[in-house]
Amino acid sequence: MPFWYGADYNAEQWPAETHEEDVRLMLEANVTVATVAVFAWSLLEPSDGEFEFEWLDRIIDRLYEAGIGVDLATSTATPPNWLSLQHPDTLLVDEWGHVLSPGSRQHVNPSSATYRRYATRLVRRLAERYGQHPGVVAWHVGNEFGNDNPRDYGDESAAVFRQWLEGKYGSIEVLNARWGTTFWSQRYRSFEEVLPPRAAPTFHNPAHLLDYERFSSDALLSAYRAEADVLRELSPGVPVTTNFMGFFRPADYWAWSREVDFISDDSYPDPAVEDSWMDAAMQRDLMRSLGGGRPWVLMEQSTSAVNWRPLNAPKRPGQMRALSYQAVARGADGIMFFQWRQSQRGGEKFHSAMVPAAGTDSRIWREVVELGRELRELEPSVLGTKTESSGVAIVIDWDSWWSAEQPSTPARLDYIDAVRSWHHALLNLGVTTDFVHVDSDLSAYDLVVAPMLFVADESTLARFDSFVERGGTLLVTALTGVTDADAAFHRGGPLGSLAATLGVRVEEYAPHDPTESVSVEGGVTFSTRHWAEVVHAEGAEVLATFRGGLADGGPALTRKRNRTGSAWYLAADATEAAARAVLNLILNTAPNPVIHTDPALPSGVEEVRRGTLTFLISHRPDTVRVARSGYDVLADTAVDEIVLEAHGVAILAAQSNTPD
Ligand code: GAL
User: Fold this and answer.
1) Of the residues 45, 213, 300, 367, which is catalytic?
2) Which domains does the chain have, with CATH numbers?
3) pLDDT (tens digit, 9 = 90+) per residue, 152-169?
4) Helices 155-169 and 206-234, interaxial angle, to 10°?
5) Which phi and psi (to 5°) does residue 302 adopt?
6) H or E segment at 234?
7) pLDDT at residue 599 above 80?
């Protein structure tokens, strides 16, 4: 595959004359791939069983002739009106039993057998027709699975959920025991009695809720798989993907990542939020990690404003380019946009595009053309190379996300916010962080951070223990190991067997009102936001203690050394600044993990190594100087110092590749 540069190409919204201009402009912008037919079901199958492919033949052939690859969508994300009206059983049902209407998009229950039958019939027809077409470079299944239909609570989903439960538990007795249904008189006599967790007077059984999240992610994945299976049968060798949405709570992307041939992602950082580039960096790091370090594709971003925020700020000059290079630096082999040509009608007409409504005499178009030219030049030195790992990983776990944010916990918790503090602190230290799954092999890492790993079963805890045994540095933060995978407490208290690894015992959680002053003091000093714990050091050294609140005077930060490794526990919540202070302490205390940091990097500037290149990217609105020397590939000159203008980018190679 070449480096992907292009967009969703909704050609069906435009007359044929526009298509010719589209191809001409695509070539001018160095577009290499177009994602075609994302929302075209009602044109491909205008009535039940009547298919019309000729218009799509023309688009695909024309792009192919022009040397532009087609990422062919299966068009199943939004069923046509006739299908919804003819088969209301396909419609999405919310937790109150409301049936959601067609008229927007994704109004479908992914578990509906009728929907699956129609969707796979369409996919079969598409794959038969285009599966061997030389212009089709990839299949794009549906679109953003679960974005508008994350969970369905209707009767058909209830039946599929019961089968899922039966597959998991085998018998209703086992389910009763593991869900703990003696609590509040919730015992079931058979699977037939189990319902989705629909609107109820107060909170549901936590194990029930957790299983429903798992089931709903699986239900979406199974709808994806139904289509992917057809494509693999009829179009062997053509890679199959679907576009992820970063940290998307309803879909456990670790499971999904095993079923796509390459990872692709949609990303829309808010240009108006000064540090949204940091969340974007975190999202890119997740995508690279989901693919095990292999290149991925940024499948959608905007050239400028979106249309779905309360205020849709445009990207500032250079900002789209900086965010694109951020993705490239962090492993992307493709930069794509939603969408090619700004719509004239419909609900997304205010959304920016590669070809703006204002036409090509525009800032956006000039930036699009310039980026396409640069990427084409960079392709030989970037394509297929890997982002360099710094030896640091953060554990990310959807079970923990789902559980920590349930009702009926010690406080309103925000899982991703906890993860964010640690990722952003590392980012500010100049460290490129990977994400790992709870079952991942940790041996490639020197430092592993487990923030709020709320759900951790014994096998995970044992894996952490052997990581420390083998000399790794482990940092575990508050609210880790609260429950096992059945949403039940570990016998003996929080952390289960990890308590011994860490040398601590958590006696009691002590969240406090944010206005109450509770701080951590000692080796690091910071104010907690709302979280503290009453902890006893049982074999660990105490490096900082709580001041104020119930835990006053007790351990807040501990370390248990283990020959070359060490296990740290932080019993408080942490802002990015607090997390940075803790990380600095870890990195400066022997035995310390050997991590290359670069605290001297100006704030708002990131530095990432990929292959033989070093990317320096500024997300600042002003000019900044960075002390680096090398060969500046974009400027085609040797430099002793880098001057980055607003949203400027420099890419350094050790030396010039071009012969003089
Ligand atoms: C994505 C979606 C696109 C478009 C875009 C607008 O969620 O996949 O079809 O709607 O957002 O930002």
Assistant:
1) 300
2) 4-78+102-149+217-382 (3.20.20.80), 392-589 (3.40.50.880), 605-657 (2.60.40.1180)
3) 999 999 999 999 999 999
4) 100
5) -105, 150
6) helix 206-234
7) no
Contacts 24+ apart (CB under 8 A), 20-26: 22/340, 22/341, 22/355, 23/62, 23/63, 23/66, 23/68, 25/355, 25/360, 26/63, 26/66, 26/68, 26/340
Distance 351 CA to ligand 1 centre (A): 9
Q: What is the pLDDT of residue 182?
A: 98
Distance of CA 444 to the CA centre of its chain: 22
DSSP state of 336: E
Residue positions counted in the chain: 660
Q: What is the mean pLDDT of residues 471-500?
A: 96
> CA torsion sign, 327 to 329 to 333 to 335?
positive
Atom 12, ligand 1: residue with shortest CA distance: 306
Residue 143 CA, closest ligand 1 atom number = 8
Residue 144 annotated among the catalytic residues of the structure = yes
Pocket of ligand 1, candidates 338, 341, 342, 350: which has the most ligand atoms within 8 Å of its Cβ, to mutate? 338
- Cα 527 to averaged position of ligand 1 atoms, centre (Å): 39
- Asked whether residue 639 carries a pLDDT value surpassing 50, the answer given is yes
- Candidates 642, 245, 79, 96; CA nearest to 88 is 79
CA distance 422 to 394: 8
Longest dimension (CA), the chain: 81
CA–CA separation, 319 vs 618, rounded Å? 9
CA 187 to ligand 1 centroid distance, Å: 43
Instruction: Convert the pLDDT of each residue in 341-374 to its tens digit.
Output: 999 999 999 999 999 999 999 999 999 999 999 9
Question: Residue 659 has what pLDDT?
Answer: 44
pTM: 0.98
Contact 428, 467 (CB under 8 A): no
Report DSSP state, residue 515: T
Atom number of ligand 1 nearest to Cα 147: 7
Instruction: Please answer whether residues 172 and 190 qualify as being in contact, where contact means their C-beta atoms are separated by less than 8 angstroms.
Output: yes
Residue 215, number of CB atoms within 10 A of its CB: 22
Q: What is the mean pLDDT of residues 493-499?
A: 96
Q: How far, in Å, from the CA of 332 to the mean position of ligand 1? A: 19
Q: Which residues line ligand 1 (CB under 6 A)?
A: 143-144, 147, 266, 268, 300, 306, 338, 348, 351
Which is catalytic among the residues 45, 144, 213, 227? 144
Residue 300 among the catalytic residues: yes
CA-based nearest residue to 175, from 185, 160, 186, 165:
165
Find, among 60, 71, 39, the residue nearest to 147 by Cα. 39
How many helices (H) does the chain have, and how many strands (E)?
A: 17, 27
Using the mean position of ligand 1's atoms as its centre, give its distance from the Cα of residue 402 in Å.
24
